Amino acid sequence: ILRSPQALQLTLALIKPDAVAHPLILEAVHQQILSNKFLIVRMRELLWRKEDCQKFYREHEGRFFYQRLVEFMASGPIRAYILAHKDAIQLWRTVMGPTRVFRARHVAPDSIRGSLGLTDTRNTTHGSDSVVSASREIAAFFPDFSEQRWYEEEEPQLR
Ligand code: RTP
Ligand code: MG
């Protein structure tokens, strides 16, 4: 069986410094990835340089939260994943819940942000918002990863 983007879409997920800092929160987020049956394609932990945060969030440059977002994302270790699933991009965003924490707590209390988010900035996770941004973001964190090569590999045997 060959993989295809239709059957198995890729997205970039980040666990932000607020969640990586606390082992129980980190484990809870990781469990959400597993219980929603995402395939973990790659995973790494890193400390982000401020310049890389600025570049990653450049679409938000000039907005009132940009400075504190960039400072926060460089304030401690983060964990990056490439996740695969059918409709991975939308599914991961649903699992995360709404960006703003008070809204998340009301409309999606069981989501990651609804249950674990602290503030609109310290909201636990990030997820790509489109196929184009997923490719860009995957390349930013995993420069050696080739989507094309990954899709051309054979499906691993189920264990
Ligand atoms: P993300 O990109 O992190 O997956 O989240 P998103 O699409 O739901 O939110 P987006 O509008 O792209 O905003 C990116 C990140 O900026 C921070 N933010 N803070 N009012 C605020 O203080 C505010 N608004 C946005 C959040 O950390 C959000 O995840
Ligand atoms: Mg976004």
From TrEMBL:
InterPro entries: NDK-like_dom, NDK-like_dom_sf, NDPk6, Nucleoside_diP_kinase, Nucleoside_diP_kinase_AS. It catalyses: a 2'-deoxyribonucleoside 5'-diphosphate + ATP = a 2'-deoxyribonucleoside 5'-triphosphate + ADP. The active site is at H126. One of its GO terms (biological process) is negative regulation of cell growth. It is an enzyme of class 2 (transferase). Residues 8-149 form the Nucleoside diphosphate kinase-like domain. Keywords: ATP-binding, Kinase, Magnesium, Metal-binding, Nucleotide metabolism, Nucleotide-binding, Transferase. One of its GO terms (cellular component) is mitochondrion. ATP binds at K16, F65, R93, T99, R113, N123. Its cofactor is Mg(2+). PROSITE patterns: NDPK, NDPK_LIKE. This is Nucleoside diphosphate kinase. The lineage of its organism: Eukaryota, Metazoa, Chordata, Craniata, Vertebrata. The gene is NME6.
